[in-house]
């Protein structure tokens, strides 16, 4: 069995991996996302939402590489953002921000991008960067034309304040999505097909990540 470290404390990502037969070790990356994104933008490394989530996913995975629990393991870092009307929307944090977003999004569509960065840290060597690779997946999200009362009730639950784009697919917000084009896992924030593709490219059997009870 190959150990997987999830450089995230996202309950949704953890639940998704567990549902897929993977029991990861979770480590909070402690990355200042705004600072990393601003620096990357100043260096001309971010031209769009896909670039941003790619860079942040990489930063999160690399942030935990020296953690004792990351030794002899495969590390994955992820980041997600909704692109709507040409703007990248992360976590709204404040109720008024979440409400304004939903007032604009209802009945319309956006593109959810999830960045993935995988590091093969199974054989760490001092001064040598371990093999790593990444990819961004995307899905088009079509929002239902929900009422003002539904928006207020949803915002009042607090759920949309803590997630990219102010909605979930695997929680209360799932009822407010009309349809999704693409990989639904991407909307949760971690695409299992993308994870499989990345670990295979590093010479790791995806099924070795499974932690199945005998």
Write a structural description:
By secondary structure, this protein is α/β, with parallel strands linked by helices. It has one domain (about 5-210): Maf protein (Alpha-Beta Complex), CATH 3.90.950.10. Helices cover about 35% and strands about 25% of the residues. It has seven helices and seven strands; from the N terminus they run βαβααββαββαβαα. Strands 1, 2, 3, 4, 5, 6 and 7 form a seven-stranded mixed beta sheet that branches. The longest helix has 15 residues, at about 50-65. It is globular, with a radius of gyration of 17 Å. The chain starts with a strand and ends in a 13-residue tail after the last helix.
Short description:
By secondary structure, the protein is of the alpha/beta class.
